Every structure is written in C-alpha cells, then in structure tokens.
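Trying the structure run again after the queue cleared.
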Amino acid sequence: MLALQVARKAGILGLLSDLKFLCSQCLSGSSDGTIRLWSLGQQRCIATYRVHDEGVWALQVNDAFTHVYSGGRDRKIYCTDLRNPDIRVLICEEKAPVLKMELDRSADPPPAIWVATTKSTVNKWTLKGIHNFRASGDYDNDCTNPITPLCTQPDQVIKGGASIIQCHILNDKRHILTKDTNNNVAYWDVLKACKVEDLGKVDFEDEIKKRFKMVYVPNWFSVDLKTGMLTITLDESDCFAAWVSAKDAGFSSPDGSDPKLNLGGLLLQALLEYWPRTHVNPMDEEENEVNHVNGEQENRVQKGNGYFQVPPHTPVIFGEAGGRTLFSMTAGVREQMASPEVPAHRTASELLCRDSGGETESMLLNETVPQWVIDITVDDKFLEVELLDQRVCPTPK
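Done. Tokens:
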C-alpha cells in the first residue's frame, strides 16, 4: 500500500492507528496525538494537526474531505477543519478511550456519529449545528484552554454486556469468583467451563472469605480477563499438576471406589469429546477388521471423561506460548466462559466446539492438536506423576 510506504519512509509506521483515504490524499492518526495529511502523489506528509493530548485511535472524514472527526485514548472526540487547522470543536467526551467511530451519512453534513469505546456500550452523538461553529466563534484555537463539549449526553445508547474486571481463584483451584463492570459478582466452575451462580451485588471480599476451604491443590491453569470474559489457559508444564479424589471433586464411581482424578486431564477430555479421534470402538480388533473388509461402518462411542460434559458452545483456542493464536474453536454463544487456550504448534482455522465431529473440522484438529493433548484425550496416557502419600510418618529418633 502506497500510504504505508510513505509512512515507512517517514519513519512513523509504528505510530499509525487509523487511515482514511480520498484519491490522492490520506489521513492518519498516530499514537503521539497528531493527525497527519499525506500526499500519495508526492509521497510525503503535507500537514500535521495537533489535536489530542494522547494517541489518536479512530478517524472519520466527511464526503467532501474537509472535516476530520477524531477520537482516541484521551476519550475526547473532535471535529477539525482540514482547511484551517486552528478551527476545531470538541463534540463530546466519552467515559472510556475511543476505539471506533462511524459517521451517519444519511445526509450531508452528517447528522450524527456512532462511537465505540473500551466499554461495552455504543453511543450516538448528534452533530447538528456543528458546522456553524466557525461563525459562532465556539471553537478552540488554543490547545491549552479547556473548552465545553458541544454535547454532554448521547442521543442514543446501545447497551452491551458487562465485562469482567476482577477475579479470584479459590484455593480449591476449581472455582473462581468474578466481578463485572456492573459490580455483579458471579461464581464459576473452571472444570465444567460454566457459570454456577450469579451472586448479584455482594461484597467481593466477603464472598472470598465465605468460600474459603482448608485444602491445598496445585495450580493447573492461568486466568486472563483481557477479553472481558474468563479465558482459561492450560499449559503442558502444569496442566496435570492437580490430582484430587473423585469424592472430593463431587463425582461418584459405579463400583463405589474413590479414584484419584486429574483435573486438567478431565477438562481436556471433556473439551474434545466431540472429536471422532477420541471416540472408542467397543468391538474387538478382529471383528473390526472383518467389518472393514465387508464395508461396514464402525460403531464408535463418544468417550469424554465419564464424569461430566462442558457446554457444547464452549470456545477452544490452540495457541503458542508467545500468544499467537493457531487454532480457534469458538461458539456462536459466548455467554458463559471462554474456554481453555491450549498451546499448539501448527496453524489452522476456526470452528464451533460442538462441530468438531465434522469431517473438515476433524482434519484440522488432526493437524493442530499437540501431542501432549492427544496422549490424554486419545490414548488415555496420563503423565507418570508420583502421588504423595498422605499418611503422616513418625519421625525416627
């Protein structure tokens, strides 16, 4: 792209946040708070507008390319006259950094602008009368003087879902308490990848104390809140560190025994139970070979972990330790919890978790799922972990 080549020559490519084009000209917003006008023919910057105090993350221009609307990290949205940079008006000030804007182009000049921020709501701000600000003198030509926004309240608000902003992993290393932007507290089960209970607007610290258990379980997952949802990451280094008895985990065995269960292994088996490669064939090998010769289909049984299932819309992401996403099994409904991110080593694409039994999706999984996950979900090979004897041995004299 010519505009990027121009920016690269100027040495500011790393600063670019947004680009807007019109034939031979281009506008760019940058992280230093400036807006630059580029000539694509001359391959150079022909004007610089110093509008914001912090990074410019979003730009919009009118059809005539005479006014630019800008927003960014400082939460302020300005309209600047490109023909006279000293003339600008503060349209409004959002409650969070601006990520994206879209002009209402149903009329000329635009009657409104839609704004998305780091919060989950989308606001519509009126622009009526904004292009008369030059005549009225209600504009700012001095960056040091604060001015009153043209609008103090949006005309319309599209509310989004609340984002999780705080979490605490309980010491059973299975349940998590979260608090969202509406101050609602929720109780989650990581093992079953679901929300257990909405606790409402209760004291977060009190709930942590109330649900404390005198038990020690090693860490076997990590938590991230960058998406506004719980994202659980399983890593080969500690995924299989937590062993608990079936009774302590709330599961019962048909034979009445109380086996030791590996939490990470159970979750992996539940996440990939729709994948045909994890299914078992109850017939013996000789009968299976005869059926193949006769052209008969195998009777394969969905295996899972034998104790529980995760919601079928649970999203799964395979990625590298550095954070690059290699494979994403996402769901159409993301209401509950973003499920584990599992480090892998190859590239693939995206599918629904419950659709992993499809032919194409199954082939993608065959190429992407790392061997350490296959060992557990397909071959039932748990790592040789030495379980500590819980008995108290007398100290020799």
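Helices lie at 2-10, 133-136, 204-210, 263-271, 285-293, 359-368, 371-377. Worth checking whether this holds up in the mutant runs.
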